[in-house]
Structure to design on (689 residues):
């Protein structure tokens, strides 16, 4: 199923539409606007420029920064593994589980683990993965993928969550949100204390110190990286940053752009395993740094996409995402960033309508904290589709016919003159077309105004009153 | 050839930088930048760091109070716990074991936290006025989970350790710790979530409440 079909289903889903309306009105855009106003819009603009420059510095010599990160992480006692593919990332993780006798793994949010299908790989090898971010946990119970990278379960209503908890927690149904949260907390606390392995994502990697960073609100990320005897951080190779100062600059951008917070509740840097005298922390710390398509973007005309710090501002501001929700995009990343990343990571031919799932209104690039020119990148993907002959034959034939005619001005004038007259006829007395030929979808919800004069633009332009010549 | 080598070589090739490894000049450029570690534009923070810190910490739903000497801390903590009807037992950073907790009627054990602890008392490595944030550096006498597992977290912070921005806290860490400990945790308010119905709830997985006792001396 493609975006179009999924989006149509989403628009027809009354429950989803009600949940999305809540997201639209109480949503992140107003919180971000307030945070930016409070911070100072000019200062925030300056920061966006600096954020983009920091990300570009990392990407322009990505291998050197990765090399530096690896050396420092290893010096501090961590293990650093590289995976070329999603499958290899899963193999490495399963191998770690085997070596350490892991039966149960607790996870904090990791978009890369969603990309790689880590949960399925673990389950297939007899290891129980438990999602501990409340939203991700709800979705694990529901057997659904996330629909937003920051608020993964925003498509679920309170009642739907209450039903899920009742079915899975073997406890009386609760519909008061604090009590529901408490119930989930108690169930998950048991898992935190009994798991052998913690799997986290990594918002950033810091080359200076060999540290990984996670930015969270719930505190589950801290549990995952502190309590089990083994901690694996699985993230993309592009996440590396040079210094602690660069990280602080990007953090100011990230939390404001994501949820409008000046800082999130918890920001945690983890560096190596526990020291010999330490009373808590994991005995083993492993980084799995995954390529999975990222190197195909390096050095090309899409490299700017790798600046992305996964704040979700582009989808929060996207009129298409706001109407259809995240599942319509079909893969891990929704919204404008997903429409660029999905074709790049899974292949242009496998995500044909995603670069078109945008109005190119530009709201995403205005909100992006690291100034990724998302509409530009979407346009480039559209071009690539045409150049590789990946568009549907009807569309290609129509464009070819138009260009053939447009190169013959007389024929073009004749054809358009006929078309305009036909349109006027179709418009009838009130000059409104209720069913446009070849455009019935467009006129299903509105009228198309017919050209009243019955003349083409070129003929109107040619007969315009000549402006009086001004004396020099 | 390993995955690592193939990935790094693909990057170099795609960027037209030749060879399979970073050149000496590239590695030197990396080290030069790390030595300089330039700061970005910093937001302005008022000169009264204590006032700013308290205001921002309270905005993240911490509660705060000030005492004038370290010796007053146990009594202040006991007062806070009693006034909120909270248990008077739990764990405390071994670093703060020199305070007379017992004398204030508190049963706080100097150790790492376990899931039975209702209260966790910590110090702080530093505090950041810009955002009202507490900074913890893990270590044998400053275990990380004390600020995480208990439902109530009390942090004792010396007013002298409040800095304007995170950047000044990094300078302190470089000067005093040399290298980062296993865990640096920045905490700004109680644990929270908005994952059900986009409604904010405190106490998702970590503490339901964070109380900060500032020591001005």
């Amino acid at each position: 199923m493609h975006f179009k079909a999924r989006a149509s289903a989403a628009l027809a889903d009354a429950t989803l539409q009600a949940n999305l309306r809540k997201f639209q009105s109480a949503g992140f855009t107003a919180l971000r606007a307030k945070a930016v106003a409070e911070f100072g819009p000019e200062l925030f603009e300056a920061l966006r420029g600096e954020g983009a420059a920091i990300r570009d510095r990392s990407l322009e010599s990505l291998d050197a920064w990765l090399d530096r990160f690896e050396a420092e992480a290893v010096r501090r006692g961590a293990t650093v593994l590289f995976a070329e593919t999603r499958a290899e990332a899963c193999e490495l993780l399963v191998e770690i589980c085997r070596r350490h006798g892991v039966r149960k793994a607790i996870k904090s949010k990791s978009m890369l683990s969603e990309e790689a299908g880590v949960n399925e790989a673990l389950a297939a090898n007899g290891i129980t993965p438990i999602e501990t971010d409340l939203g991700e946990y709800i979705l694990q119970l529901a057997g659904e993928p996330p629909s937003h990278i920051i608020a993964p379960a925003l498509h679920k209503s309170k009642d739907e969550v209450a039903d899920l908890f009742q079915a899975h927690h073997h406890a009386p149904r609760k519909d008061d949100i604090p009590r529901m949260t408490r119930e989930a907390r108690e169930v998950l606390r048991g898992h935190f204390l009994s798991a052998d392995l913690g799997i986290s994502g990594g918002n950033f990697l810091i080359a200076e110190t060999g540290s990984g960073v996670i930015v969270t609100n719930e505190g589950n990320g801290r549990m995952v990286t502190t309590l089990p005897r083994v901690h694996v951080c699985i993230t993309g190779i592009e996440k590396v940053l040079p210094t602690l100062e660069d990280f602080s600059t990007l953090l100011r951008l990230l939390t404001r752009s994501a949820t409008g917070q000046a800082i999130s509740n918890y920001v945690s840097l983890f560096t190596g395993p526990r020291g010999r005298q330490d009373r808590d922390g994991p005995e083993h710390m492993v980084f799995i740094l995954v390529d999975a398509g990222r190197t195909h973007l390096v050095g090309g005309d899409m490299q700017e996409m790798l600046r992305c710090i996964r704040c979700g501002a582009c989808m929060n501001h996207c009129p298409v995402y706001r109407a259809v929700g995240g599942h319509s995009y079909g893969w891990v990343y929704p919204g404008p960033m997903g429409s660029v990343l999905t074709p790049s990571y899974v292949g242009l031919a496998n995500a044909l309508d995603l670069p078109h799932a945008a109005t190119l209104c530009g709201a995403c690039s205005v909100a992006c904290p690291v100034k990724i020119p998302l509409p530009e990148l979407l346009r480039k993907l559209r071009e690539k589709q045409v150049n590789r002959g990946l568009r549907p034959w009807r569309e290609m034939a129509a464009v070819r016919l138009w260009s053939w005619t447009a190169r013959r001005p007389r024929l073009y004038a004749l054809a358009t003159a006929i078309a305009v007259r036909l349109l006027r006829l179709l418009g009838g007395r009130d000059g409104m077309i209720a069913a446009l030929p070849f455009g019935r979808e467009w006129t299903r919800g509105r009228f198309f105004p017919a050209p009243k004069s019955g003349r083409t633009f070129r003929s109107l332009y040619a007969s315009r009153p000549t402006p009086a010549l001004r004396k020099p | 050839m390993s995955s690592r080598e193939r990935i790094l070589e693909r990057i170099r090739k795609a960027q037209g930088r030749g060879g399979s490894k970073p050149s000496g000049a590239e590695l030197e450029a990396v080290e030069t930048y790390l030595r300089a570690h330039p700061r970005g534009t910093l937001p302005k923070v008022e000169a009264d760091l204590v006032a700013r810190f308290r205001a921002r910490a309270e905005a993240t739903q911490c509660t705060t109070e000030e005492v004038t000497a370290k010796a007053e801390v146990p009594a202040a903590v006991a007062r806070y716990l009693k006034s909120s009807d909270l248990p008077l037992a739990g764990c405390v950073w071994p670093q703060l074991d020199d305070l007379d907790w017992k004398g204030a009627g508190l049963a706080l054990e100097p150790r790492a936290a376990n899931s039975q602890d209702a209260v966790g008392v910590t110090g702080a490595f530093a505090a950041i006025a810009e955002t009202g944030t507490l900074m913890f550096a893990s270590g044998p006498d400053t275990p990380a989970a004390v600020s995480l597992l208990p439902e109530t977290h009390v942090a004792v912070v010396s007013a002298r350790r409040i800095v304007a921005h995170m950047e000044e806290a990094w300078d302190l860490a470089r000067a005093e710790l040399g290298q980062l400990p296993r865990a640096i945790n920045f905490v700004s308010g109680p644990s929270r979530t908005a994952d059900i119905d986009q409604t904010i709830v405190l106490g998702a997985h970590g503490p339901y409440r964070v109380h900060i006792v500032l020591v001005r001396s």
About this structure: The longest strand of chain A covers residues 230-236.
